Target: Alpha/beta hydrolase
Amino acid sequence: MPAGKTQPTPLLFVHGAYTAAWCWEEHFLPFFAEAGYAAYAVSLSGHGGSPGRKHLDSFSIGDYVRDVAAVAAALPAPPVLIGHSMGGFVVQKYLEEHIAPGAVLMCAVPPQGLLSAAMGMMFSKPGMMKDLNSLMSGGKASLETLREALFAQPVSLDDLKRYYKGSQSESHRAIWDMSLFGMPRAGRVKRTPLLVQGAEFDHLIPASLVEMTARTYDVDAHVFPGMGHGLMLERDWKKPAQQILDWLRELEG
Model:
């Protein structure tokens, strides 16, 4: 919460696969609170401290959308949604049925789904693909895979170990939902003002797919040079954060 005057519109941050609300606590929540916004982050079902870890594979994207809807409904006003990676896909699905004051799709799974990203990684980064599949099934990925998947900029070993400790498996059902079933209906999503962000060296959701997302929704793609998939944790995290802040202020008029 901000120390002083609070903006009327709260922010709700939605994490991606293999992680939880903690990924926003490092930089983004305090940054936006300092800027006057009540900033909230949800851990989706089976993630972080939320219930359901033992039956994680039973959760669908629809379940994650219901999580977001429940939290949004409990806030004092409809929030601007900021979704990263899988969280960006969840936000798109949420916007089919709800109109928000605005939404940010950050390195988001595109509305066309995950298959093109998966195929690209299979050929360009087969080792990373193997490790992520292992992590999805409850196994372990290497520290180096985590670094390569999230970061293009330097990250300390201590920080990397902390992030590694917070990583977890992901729902197979949710991954299949993003791959084959229930793609977002773009016409309904477009009713909400959108900001689309990506990263030049994102191996999971390449900049070309970020640009495809932006084209689908008739907005510009903002691809940050020299950064990787974990925009909110990268050394230059303030650049995407500041752009979101500037965009929020434009929305407010």
Observations:
- The domain at 11-251 is CATH 3.40.50.1820 (Rossmann fold).
